[in-house]
Amino acid sequence: MTATRNASRIMLAFAVVFATACGGGEKAQQTAQVPAAGGGAGSDRPDGAVVYQRCATCHQPTGVGTPGVFPPLAGSGIANGPASIPIRIVMRGLMGPVTVKGQEFNGVMPAYGIGVEMTDAEVAAVLTHVRSSFGNKGGAVTPEEVARERAAIASKAGPWTAAELGIK
Question: Which CATH number does the domain housing residue 26 bear?
């Protein structure tokens, strides 16, 4: 019964993720609707907290995740470690088992680097927000770092696994 219950929870979670994250394929509208930092007209810097709203459905507004379904970002070694790993996860997604804060999660995070595309500035803004919120102490991420990672993984098809990223 527990396996069936967990499978049902995971299926429901995937449905929520794809319904909210994928936005029905309206990629251009999603990236165009992200306000600039501070609401200032003419600024080309997205507000990371606003972009994070795309993530909050699963990782929660407070970054604590959804126990047994979506991993926490608060206090996560992945979020606080080298910026290249969360950049790669945002760009191509993550699937399969991953251990975060001692708990194993086995699901799929959708990619935001293809399909539902985020600009380099949006990826940098949201990851800077995550790495400086929820008690995290990671450094800022720049659009230039994101651009380098985007170029480095251009031939990568499909989501990453924890093993491919060297996540233990």
Answer: 1.10.760.10
